[in-house]
Amino acid sequence: MLKFNNDWDEVLSTLVTSELYAKIREFLKSEYSNYDVYPPMDEIFTAFKLTPFKDVKVVILGQDPYHEPGEAHGLCFSVKEGVKMPPSLNNIYKELKSDLGVDNGNKTQLDKWAKQGVLLLNTTLTVRRGQANSHKNCGWTKFTDQVIKILNGHETPIVFILWGQNARSKKAFIDGNKHLILESAHPSPLSCYNGFFGCHHFSLTNEFLVKNGLSPIDWQL
User: Fold this and answer.
1) Of the residues 55, 64, 103, 111, which is catalytic?
2) Cβ atoms of 157 and 19 closer than 8 Å
3) Rounded to 5 degrees, what are φ and ψ at 208?
4) Total Cβ atoms within 10 A of residue 180
5) Nearest-5° angle of CA 155, CA 112, CA 91?
6) pTM for this one?
7) pLDDT tens digits for 163-187?
8) Residue 64 is among the residues annotated as catalytic for this protein
9) Do 163 and 61 touch, CB atoms closer than 8 A?
10) Cβ distance 188 to 87 under 8 Å?
11) Which of 126, 173, 189, 208 is most open to solvent, judged by the fewest CB atoms within 10 Å of its CB?
12) Is 70 exposed, middle or buried (0-12, 13-18, 19+ CB in 10 A)?
């Protein structure tokens, strides 16, 4: 049985015992046995383990995990300290510095954000080495559809930050009257100049949180 060791255990109990998740598990058993797959199996659900459901204030939604060795560890856009900074994260930091003046230097592990209530989630939670979006059709997108629907029913308002087309496809499951939806191009070098730079999502997030009586995120690592 999948365990998150926080309130996600109850919140996702129906989903993780569903036929959908059973099919994903069978697929992953084969994939991890026959290919290099990221993140490591015990880190697939890091985002849920670090950010309890009751504490979620912000959801940053990416595409799928980094697909090179040693990068992905279950938080979207994050890599562990000591790993070379990925271009997407570098661009996120450029926007953060432009928006709020926050400079995170070479720090690459985003656990501090997660522990403040930022759910760092990808639309697909695993990937084959060197093959972006290779696990998109194994059931993960339907799984994360359900997660977003559950988050939409959260007691307090949430900021949903949707970067890229995969993430923006989840907009249909979010009540924009209750929650704040921020969307833009993906921070990848391939698309960052199509509206990601200058989006001011970090300051807009904190403004919304404060307006709703919630503490802002300290984006400084």
Assistant:
1) 64
2) no
3) -65, -45
4) 20
5) 100
6) 0.97
7) 999 999 999 999 999 999 999 999 9
8) yes
9) yes
10) yes
11) 189
12) middle
